[in-house]
Amino acid sequence: MGLLMDGQNLAACHRMRLQDVGCYLLVAMGGTALSILAPHDTERIESIVIEEMIAEGLHRYEPDPRYWYSADGVPYGYVIGAPGADVDAEELRLVEQAAGMAMGCVVELHIFVSDRAGRLALAQIAQRVAGRIEGWVFVELDGLPCPDLLDHLDGGGRCVRVDGAGYLDAEATARWINHPDFHVVK
Fold first, then answer.
1. Helix (H, G, I), strand (E, B) or coil at 52
2. Following DSSP, what letter does each residue of 118-182 receive, concatenated?
């Protein structure tokens, strides 16, 4: 697909491009990813993603500036491209309908190892980026979400529900992060 990372050896990453997809996607061995659909061009969005990575206290990996590390050495990264095969067409239509505008970009934020604190940081970065770019964060809910969680998300912000998952605007994402059942599916 796009970037192939094993989380253990960042320097050994390989970059591939699928001509038929037309964008870069993130595939990882381990770790967690969050996607953000957005109605803006990639150039504008990348500067915002970089600002939010810095705001979270992450530091750039100099050999490849798309990759970052936390102070305790946890590796993060991002890829920005057009929604392609990784976004279900019907789900994209539902988000566009709720947003009232076309989604022309997808941001993939990734932590390359399994790290609970890193998952929270990843969600916080996603929420702040979504708030600045009118984005929608894709959240997989482990199993069927409890009605309390869905009511909580619907109580503020907007949530487009899709089979055990949802696309949350920035306000709903903030409510999700602050809910006692907050989790990120690995």
1. helix
2. HHHHHHHHHHHHHHHHT-EEEEE-SSSPPHHHHHHHHTSS-EEEETTEEEE-HHHHHHHHTSTT-
20-24, 87-91, 129-133, 151-155: least confidently modelled range: 20-24
Sorting pLDDT into bands at 50, 70 and 90, what band is 154? low
Task: Kindly give the pairing relationship between strand 159-162 and strand 136-140.
Answer: unpaired
Helices 42-55/116-133 angle, 10° precision: 140
User: Is the pLDDT at 5 greater than 60, yes or no?
Assistant: no
Give ∠ CA 114-116-122 in degrees, rounded to 5. Answer: 90
Q: Are 100 and 40 in contact (CB under 8 A)?
A: no
Two tokens, residue 78: 């991002």
Pairwise CA distance, residues 73 & 41, whole Å: 31
Looking at the DSSP bridge assignments, the partners of residue 4 are: 14, 27
Higher pLDDT, 114 or 2: 114
